[in-house]
Amino acid sequence: MNQKPDTDPAHGAPGGRGTPVGRRVILGMLGLGAAGVATAPYLQRGLESALGAASQKDPTGLTGLLPNGGGFRYYSVAASVPHRDAGSYRLRIDGLVDRPATYTLDRLRALPQRRIVRDVQCVTGWRVPETPFEGVVLSDLLDAAGVRPEARAIRFTCFDGTYSESLTLSQARRDDVLVALRMRDKDIAHAHGGPVRLYVAPMYFYKSAKWLSGITLTREVDPGYWEERGYDTDAWVGRSNGRDDAPTV
Ligand SMILES: Nc1nc2c(c(=O)[nH]1)N[C@H]1C(S)=C(S)[C@@H](COP(=O)(O)O)O[C@H]1N2
Ligand SMILES: [Mo]
Question: Does residue 159 line the site of ligand 1, with CB under 6 A?
């Protein structure tokens, strides 16, 4: 299996060929290319990798097929992500709630768990059939926190320090949205966003924020990382890229 990073199509500007960033890099290199023959081999290599990165729409993501990943690709917009375990992991629920709370991994594990088996679908086209996820139904955590009437949306943050996601409150109240602790019947590995990731079964996988550390109730939707870069905030599978089947939910 190919484990080399930066070889898979990943998220860039949706539907675009390359990105503004990619084009700037290439134009910069073409300009330098006029400097002379002596630097040609270096520039050639640089230009090839810039063109390669741009044509794969991958200006920011570190991607690669995961070893033994069963078709999953590894995505992280952060270059490195700290490891958290039962001793160090914390999940904070705050914002417009009556009872802000901080959960340890053990406390999350002690709550009732739900198992869901659906296809995983990345908006860029790859799909992994019938993947079990297991965890606490997000709605249960919201009940425990006491959502205030003025709350209409949720902002999710991650301990990679960069990624974020959003849901409306009614989306978040669905029973197929989990604070997931297990994936494919194992504790979620670090590469897949462990020890805890969000799992939004009916939506494209970018909604399923890895390395989840914060759940903040807000008045309105604050678009997440990819949503600020052009992807739909309402990411129902089948609605966003026009080529998948309608959701069977
Ligand atoms: N924190 C974080 N969560 C993330 C991402 C990311 O880059 N950072 N990428 C998203 C995208 S686009 C996809 S397809 C899936 C990939 O999950 P995987 O790496 O477990 O295959 O994670 C989603 N959640
Ligand atoms: Mo994705």
Answer: no
Sequence-ordered list of residues with C-beta below 8 angstroms from that of 176, at least 6 positions apart, any chain: 116, 118, 200, 201, 202, 249
Residue 26 binned pLDDT confidence (cut-offs 50, 70, 90): very low
Question: What one-letter code names the amino acid at 57?
Answer: K
Could you give the CA distance from residue 133 to residue 183 in angstroms, rounded to a whole number?
Answer: 4
Does residue 163 line the site of ligand 1, with CB under 6 A? yes
The CA distance from 145 to 130, in Å, is 32
Counting from 1 in the atom list of ligand 1, the atom nearest the Cα of 10 is 12
In whole angstroms, what is the distance from residue 148 CA to residue 17 CA? Answer: 43
Instruction: pLDDT band for 71, please (50, 70, 90 cuts).
Output: confident
Looking from the CA of residue 76, the nearest atom of ligand 1 is 7
Measure 199 CA to ligand 2 centroid, in angstroms.
Answer: 13
